[in-house]
Design goal:
Elements lengths: L1 H23 L8 E2 L13 E5 L3 E5 L5 H15 L10 H9 L2 E6 L6 H8 L8 E2 L16 H17 L1 H4 L7 H9 L26 H17 L5 H7 L8 H7 L1 H8 L33 E4 L7 E5 L6 E8 L4 E9 L7 E3 L12 E9 L2 E9 L2
Parallel strand pairs: 3-4, 4-5
Antiparallel strand pairs: 1-2, 2-3, 6-7, 7-10, 8-9, 8-11, 11-12
Length: 384
């Protein structure tokens, strides 16, 4: 009889644990897949794989639970598609991350001997790494508990924003809006950690292993998450006060006015809403879209071009078609076609003018085409 009681008690505990696990899992519309590169010297070290919106590829070792892998995927998707409409908010960053083969590796711990092996052989972009103990799906982005938001933001910034928008985000001294704002926030241009920061400084990073560029990466992270409100509780504010003072959105707006303006400028397309670990846009299919090289749905020629480029789309195949031209800074240059298709058109032509009918400067542009729930991006070069 005692044996039966113990068995029933154990069974009850197991049922509760399973129920908690199922109910506790966030709503994530991604699947974990086998490693698509098992023979690669760097990527072959991992067992689990998720492709996030064709921008960030998550690779995790076998000891990382599925729940934690999917949490990382969801956070990445929420930061890239902050309005959760199924499309990456900045098509330029989408293209850059895809082209550089950006990855987020997840290891068991910082003592893993696989870390050096990975970085010795990987030639894509890995702006940060995550460890098993740093991921807590129950507390998305909470300081001290879940580092997923921080490390994925670092990855998006280092692999995307910094190289693509250097005037805004370049990390070197005297090189960008970001570096100038950080010098003000630190009370001067300190290339290394000073013995003490001036009283007027509100960003006082004190890790001696972190150089100027590293501090700029951290500074950009603090600004973005502060604006989101992730740090806005007394315990967190107290815990980070030795490094970062304006921990609430209100303080950020009044103290760091330069970065508040940058982060909240809609042209910069930085995430505004704090991720909650759930990503499954309603009524939108999450589509993994390849950057277009040769595709039967799209032909762009000649490329490079002058005086015009032809854009041929299979208009009869799709109901909703939007075609726009963007500059490398992510700003809309020209709206070429924006309607539900109700006319017979075989191709469109862009003559290198903006929406004000003025000629743009020569250089790189992006043709972004939304076909129903599918997005295609093509680099085009205008020559003069």
């Amino acid at each position: 009889m005692d044996y039966l009681k113990k068995y029933i008690t154990l069974l009850f505990l197991i049922i509760n644990l399973v129920s908690f696990s199922i109910l506790g899992q966030n709503n994530v519309c991604f699947d974990i897949e086998p490693n698509p590169n098992p023979n690669d010297d760097a990527l072959g070290l991992f067992d689990k794989y998720v492709n996030v919106l064709n921008c960030i590829e998550i690779y995790a070792v076998s000891s990382i639970s599925d729940e934690k892998v999917l949490h990382a995927a969801s956070i990445a998707a929420e930061l890239l598609d902050n309005d959760e409409d199924g499309f990456v908010d900045d098509p330029i960053i989408e293209s850059v991350l895809s082209n550089t083969i950006t990855v987020m590796p997840i290891f068991n711990s910082e003592n893993s001997n696989l870390i050096d092996q990975f970085f010795d052989h990987y030639d894509g972009c890995a702006g940060a790494i995550l460890f098993r103990g740093e991921i807590d799906p129950s507390q998305p982005g909470h300081w001290g508990d879940d580092a997923t938001v921080e490390e994925i933001l670092h990855t998006i910034n280092v692999c995307g924003h910094v190289p693509e928008y250097p005037a805004l985000y370049s990390l070197e001294p005297n090189s960008s809006y970001l570096s100038e704002a950080m010098d003000i926030a630190r009370g001067g241009q300190w290339l290394n950690v000073p013995s003490s920061y001036p009283d007027e400084a509100w960003y006082h990073y004190d890790d001696w292993t972190c150089d100027y560029e590293c501090m700029a990466v951290e500074y950009l992270y603090w600004c973005i998450v502060t604006n989101m409100g992730i740090l806005d509780d007394p315990q967190t504010c107290q815990g980070i006060s030795n490094e970062w003072e304006p921990c609430t959105p209100a303080l950020f707006e009044t103290v760091d006015t330069l970065m508040f303006d940058l982060v909240n400028n809609s042209d910069n397309k930085l995430p505004q809403l704090a991720p909650d670990g759930n990503y499954c846009p309603e009524n939108v299919e999450v589509v993994q879209v390849d950057l277009i090289k040769d595709n039967s749905d799209l032909f762009v020629y000649p490329n490079p071009f002058n005086p015009y480029v032809n854009i041929h789309v299979d208009f009869f195949k799709y109901k909703n078609i939007n075609i726009d031209i963007y500059g490398v800074n992510g700003i809309l240059i020209k709206s070429l076609f924006n309607s539900k298709y109700d006319q017979k058109v075989s191709q469109l032509r862009w003559d290198g003018t903006n929406n004000n009918q003025k000629k743009v400067s020569s250089g790189l542009y992006f043709c972004v085409i939304n076909l129903d729930q599918k997005r295609l991006t093509k680099k085009i070069i205008f020559l003069k």
